[in-house]
């Protein structure tokens, strides 16, 4: 494929933006990348080749889209901002295997989109510099809908990436860590300073790779109830697991029964949720559901 001029150089980005009279919308999380190295790291982490497809969320003016198109066999990019569609069509015109979809990724039927767009590909990954105001809802949608994805490689707020990848025992570990690690193996790829964007965001960022698991690493009787137990356990971080579960699942006089069930799950009532592993949460939710607590 012939090499086109890079969209992401600061000069070219400014030229495109000025020529189209484009004004950034903070409310849509519009911080565009202007650094070749970071773009290459993001694309490299997605392990793409021409047999693979890439689904990009929020292409902006197409800097990452262009890099993806130079590696993947098919790229589909979903952009919410109608003002960017003609710009994307113009700058990405030399790449026939890119399709631009105008829409809100949170409202789209992504399973149908993936099935329709990537029929000829051997695997699909999501690759994106995500809008920070909706990072968690987007990631949770991708995971909870059990979409047929290989990797999710995203630039997100550094603090959110650290929570996703956190191990038990620290203050970053919480229900987001458990949700992400139930579905994926997370790996921090790199920390990114705010100077590589225009306009610059107020926070530092990180690239994280979530390798989507074929099967969760634990067997839970009921997925929704498992996540309910996790949420309830972290309701008040400073409280013990026993007090948090009592507040959510047990009537006034249920303390003894709760402690008996915790013992059955081999969890000390005095522990705090942030010390429990994924395996312990799975054991606990299975014991509670078998005791009829759903
Ligand atoms: N990919 C570009 C880059 O790296 O330079 C732009 C990334 S910018 C952080 C986020 C992009 O997501 C913006 O183009 C914004 O308009 C778009 N966006 C925001 N909310 C969206 C949504 N719900 N669905 C699809 N795109 C969205």
TrEMBL record:
This is Ribosomal RNA small subunit methyltransferase A. Its EC number is 2.1.1.182. GO terms for molecular function: 16S rRNA (adenine(1518)-N(6)/adenine(1519)-N(6))-dimethyltransferase activity; RNA binding. The lineage of its organism: Bacteria, Bacillati, Bacillota, Bacilli, Bacillales. Specifically dimethylates two adjacent adenosines (A1518 and A1519) in the loop of a conserved hairpin near the 3'-end of 16S rRNA in the 30S particle. May play a critical role in biogenesis of 30S subunits. Belongs to the class I-like SAM-binding methyltransferase superfamily. rRNA adenine N(6)-methyltransferase family. RsmA subfamily. It is found in: Cytoplasm. Residues 38-214 form the Ribosomal RNA adenine methylase transferase N-terminal domain. The gene is rsmA. S-adenosyl-L-methionine binds at residues 31, 33, 58, 79, 104, 129. GO terms for cellular component: cytosol. The keyword Cytoplasm applies. HAMAP family: 16SrRNA_methyltr_A. It comes from Paenibacillus zeisoli. Gene3D superfamilies: Ribosomal RNA adenine dimethylase-like, domain 2, Vaccinia Virus protein VP39. Pfam families: RrnaAD. It catalyses: adenosine(1518)/adenosine(1519) in 16S rRNA + 4 S-adenosyl-L-methionine = N(6)-dimethyladenosine(1518)/N(6)-dimethyladenosine(1519) in 16S rRNA + 4 S-adenosyl-L-homocysteine + 4 H(+). Keywords: Cytoplasm, Methyltransferase, RNA-binding, rRNA processing, S-adenosyl-L-methionine, Transferase. Its main location: cytoplasm. PANTHER family: DIMETHYLADENOSINE TRANSFERASE, DIMETHYLADENOSINE TRANSFERASE-RELATED.
